[in-house]
Amino acid sequence: MISAGRVLVIGFGNPLRGDDGLGSRAAAAIAARWPDVSVLTPQQLTLELAEPISRARLVLLIDAAAGDAPGSIACRAVTFDPAAAGTLHHHVAPAALLSAVHALYGQAPPVILLTVSGRAFDFGQGLSPAVETALSDLIARVAGLIDRRQSA
User: Fold this and answer.
1) For 83-97, what is each residue's pLDDT tens digit?
2) What structural domains does the chain harbor?
């Protein structure tokens, strides 16, 4: 359960699909390092996450991505678009989920999406070497975000 004023980390992806398991691996590392940070590890973003997101002061979404050089890290603020709340399906995009939170609860916390570009998304457990190497840099970025929020 997330108490008001807390950081919520949502590490999502399928740990049985290679690099797609990055979110759950990162979330486990974050939970071990910061026991006061709330952590969820769904396989995908769904509307059911709106309620816990609404109670957080900061939400960090962590996922693997395809496209860029394997191991590259991207970090961006998620912005909401009121029109996106009407495009909800079983799996939702970060902006649509944030829009739903705002529509349902009248406000939404800051949400930051951190992604690491993956190489291997086939069936299998374990991260590719490039993503495994990037994991420590990702955790360092998360540390900076959490430390800034906790000192604010």
Assistant:
1) 665 555 556 889 999
2) 6-151 (3.40.50.1450)
